[in-house]
Amino acid sequence: MSRARRARKIAQTAAFGGGVGAAGLGALGLAGYGLLRVEAVLARRIVGQPFEGAPDDEGTYGFGPGEPIRFLVLGDSTGAGMGAEHARQTIGATIANGVAAFSGRPVELTNVAAIGAESLHLGAQVERGLERVPSPDIAVILIGANDVTHRIERSLAVGHLEMAVRRLREAGAEVVVGTCPDLGAIEPLPQPLRYLARRWSRDLAAGQTVAVVEAGGRAVSIGDLLSDAFSAAPQVMFSQDRFHPSPAGYARVAAALLPTVSAALDLFGERSAPTQPSAWRGEGVGPVAVAASRAVANPGTEVAPAEVGGQARGVHGRWAMIRRRLRPTVAVPEADPVRDGDPVPTPAAEAPEGVEGAPIGAPPS
Predict the structure, then answer these.
(1) How far apart are CA 296 and CA 178, in angstroms?
(2) Is residue 359 included in any domain, yes or no?
(3) Which of 13, 74, 175, 323 is least crowded, fewest Cβ atoms below 10 Å from its Cβ?
(4) pTM
(5) What is the per-residue pLDDT for 334?
(6) Residue 170 is part of which domain span?
(7) How far apart are CA 360 and CA 348, in angstroms?
(8) Which residues pair with 323 in a beta bridge?
(9) Where are the transmembrane segments (predicted)?
(10) Which of the four pLDDT bands, split at 50, 70 and 90, describes residue 333?
(11) Active-site amino acid positions
(12) How far apart are the first and last CA of the chain?
């Protein structure tokens, strides 16, 4: 089964409240699940817990006239900033500074992310966040890693994420979700756990993308953004626990999210003067499940709701647009292009032609 079909199935199962077995293992089976349990325990012992918490990054960033932009961060330890050495090194703080610079307005950051949070905790975070900021302008969610390491059923995790996005959209917030990172980049994980973690991370990220777009939010793929850079320089990109990002790692993730956050706030004027997707960058419009599958293989890719001929849905489901607003570069040593059994992603310039500029793949059958 292709990743696009798996993503659609995960999202559909979440929507209808069904289940897909222990931790959503599917074809991997209980043998792989048992192996993951044993090796995950060993990996957690290797990783350790050198941090007591995360810096408090709440406050006002930037200067300028007008009311502050109300910015809400939700999610797990990545959103909380565990591994950052200073409050201004977190993803939320970095994005807040960037938005303040682009907009010329101050940004008021409220962070309700929690270390160890899973997707099922998002509902409580949303309510807590909306109690403090009843009408946020923008919300960023970073979630998924603990759903994989704690073996949470993928459809259940995706369902909770979708509900959180819908609730925030109802409150008037633009929502940007950084999807599940590629846990196959974690240095202490042995094989075959590393391969399984990579596959499960990517499948969860694809399912998250479908759900986020269906709920009216924008998803940005994080997975391979971390994998290549962190594998190339783990001593720089990982913090001392060898699991959470370092300040340099957080800066890299924030750089991928900031353009989408800025676009969601219309800081670039796209609503009044929309730009067409760029074929040579591999941008385009197509079924959301196909967009999600392609985004997983291309770090920093944004997937957002779209329309074709004035219609939000086609015969293969919700229309979605892929945008590659920014792909930060990192010096990566030459290596075998096939890593842990994964094929090399198709370069954006090689994408075939399709609907609305560059295609994102043939509609699923």
Answers:
(1) 11
(2) no
(3) 13
(4) 0.79
(5) 36
(6) 3-350
(7) 10
(8) 302
(9) 12-36
(10) very low
(11) 77, 241, 244
(12) 11
The C-alpha angle with vertex 179 and arms to 348 and 188, in degrees rounded to 5, equals 100
Domain count, the chain: 1
Whether 358 is in a domain gets the answer no
Asked if residue 321 lies in contact with residue 285, where contact means CB atoms within 8 angstroms, the answer is yes
Coil, strand or helix at 81: coil
Whether 356 maps to a domain, the answer reads no
Q: Which residues of 145-166 are buried (b: 16+ CB within 10 A; e: fewer)?
A: bbbbbebbbbbbbbbbbbbbbb
- Residues recorded for the chain: 365
Q: How many Cα atoms sit within 13 Å of 229 on the Cβ side?
A: 23
Q: What is the CATH number of the domain that holds 100?
A: 3.40.50.1110
- pLDDT at position 231: 59
Cα 44 to Cα 41, 49, 190, 216: the distances in Å are: 5, 9, 11, 36
Distance from C-alpha of 145 to C-alpha of 205, rounded to nearest angstrom: 10
Confidence at residue 223, expressed as pLDDT on a 0 to 100 scale: 78
